[in-house]
Design a protein that fits this description.
By secondary structure, this protein is mostly helical. Helices cover about 75% and strands about 0% of the residues.
């Protein structure tokens, strides 16, 4: 997070740089910077997955044009699952808590949330590798098998992402 956080802090205007160390404002601003860094990270992850979705879509179009319609069902499911994941990442909570909310979000939870989201970036390479396996498959059965493996991977990532809120609530993983 250091580089995203530093990039945000480096963009302060003169007034922000002047007041950033005022008591009361300093903690507030630090939380805002962490939230903004997490948002930027999630945008990066979503864009990377969108690129993979476009690649998978182009594979699906090529297979359709070649008349290989039997393989389209698992590919379509994988495309829908990937789009769901992209949408969930784009619209995920920023880690805000109101003044009277039962659960207060502190800097430590925001840091954990950022670290959780950073692991999503690692999954982009796994998704890419599985999409490449779909593209490399020659026989219909091999395409279906690779598409099903992609679908299983996307289900796993979606399931992991469902545990994101637990990071804020400090619920231990089961």
């Amino acid at each position: 997070m250091a580089n995203l956080k530093e990039k945000i802090e480096g963009g302060y205007n003169k007034l922000e740089a002047l007041v950033k160390d005022l008591p009361g404002y300093k903690g507030y601003k630090a939380k805002e910077v962490r939230r903004e860094a997490d948002k930027l990270l999630r945008v990066k992850v979503a864009r990377a997955w969108e690129e993979q979705r476009r690649h998978l879509n182009s594979i699906q179009v090529k297979l359709t044009n070649a008349g290989r319609l039997d393989v389209l069902v698992p590919l379509d499911r994988a495309l829908m699952r990937l789009q769901l994941l992209i949408d969930r990442v784009k619209t995920a909570s920023y880690g805000y808590a109101g003044l009277f909310d039962a659960v207060k979000v502190r800097e430590a939870e925001l840091e954990s949330l950022y670290n959780f989201d950073a692991t999503l970036l690692e999954s982009v390479d796994k998704v890419k590798a599985q999409i490449d396996a779909v593209a490399a498959a020659k026989k219909d059965n091999d395409v279906i098998e690779a598409a099903n493996a992609l679908l299983a991977l996307l289900e796993e990532i979606n399931s992991t992402f469902s545990k994101r809120q637990d990071v804020i609530l400090e619920i231990p993983s089961v």
